[in-house]
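Good morning N.,

You mentioned wanting to compare the apo and holo forms, so I went ahead and generated the holo version with pantoate. This is what I fed in:
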Amino acid sequence: MRHFTTVSGIQNYLREQKLNHNSIGLVPTMGALHEGHSSLVKASLSENDITVTSIFINPVQFDNVEDFKRYPQTLESDLIELQKLGNTVVFIPSQQEMYPEKTILRLEFGSLQQEMEGKFREGHFNGVGIVVGKLFNIIKPDKAYFGQKDLQQYAVINQLVKDFSFDVKLRCMPILREDDGLAFSSRNQRLDAKGRTEAIILYKSLELAKDLIVEKVSIEEIIVKVQNLFGQSTVDLEYFEIVDPVSLMPIQSYNTQTNIALCIAGRVGKIRLIDNMIISK
Ligand code: PAF
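and this is what came out, ligand included:
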C-alpha cells in the first residue's frame, strides 16, 4: 500500500496512473475506521483499478472544538486494516497541507442544510463541502464512496458535485450494523458499556417508526411515540425527522407510494450519534 502525505506527492503518482488508464476510486474518511468504512473500501476495490482512502480529521466541519479534539485517532490500526483489505493508496495529509491558508469561500446548501444536522451543527456542511471539494480536486477520482448513515451529508455532496460540475460518480453505500442493530460509527468507540447498551434506542426507534408506518399511523403520532420511547431512556433525543429521502424536507402525510427517510440523532452522554432508515416503495 502506498502512503502519501503531500498533495504534490499523490498528484504526481495519480497523474501517472491516469496516463495508464487506471480508474481511481476515492474513499474519504476521518480515520477511526470500522466495518462501515471497510465496506466502502471493498466496493471501491471491486469497481476501480486504484483505491485512494484519505484519512483527515477535518477541523472545518466541527462546530465544537471539544468534539474535534476528542475525535478518535487510531491511525496505526487503520493502516493495518486498509492493508488487510488490499487498499491501494492512503492519503494522510496534515492540516497545513490541506489548509495552507485559511479558507475564505463559504458554501451554503439552502434547504438541504436547513433541517437535522444543518440545524444542530452550525457550519458543518460548509466544512464538509470544502474538504470534499478539495479532495475531489486533488485526487480527481472517477468514483467516490460515502455511507448512507450520513444521509444529509450525501445529499449535500451530491449538490456540490452538480453545482461545481465535478467529474465524479458518487456511490452511496448501505448502513452496516452491529449484531443488535447499532449502526457502525467511529464515535461508538467512545461509548462506555452502559452507553453502548443505551445507544441501541436509536435503532429501536427507527424500527418502531417503520412498523408504525406499515400500520399507517399518522406522522404526528409516530413522532410522539418515538419521543415517548426516549422519555424512558437516559439518551437525549436531538431530533427525529420523517423526511423525503431526496429533498430531506419533512413530510406531513404519506401513502403507499411515498418514499420515506426516518432520521434520528441522539446524545449518549457527550457522544452524539446519528442513524437513519429509508423506506422506499
Ligand atoms: O463522513 C466523514 O467521515 C467526513 O464527513 C468526510 C466525508 C470524510 C469529510 O471530512
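The longest helix spans residues 124-139.

Happy to go through it together on a call whenever suits you.

Best,
F.
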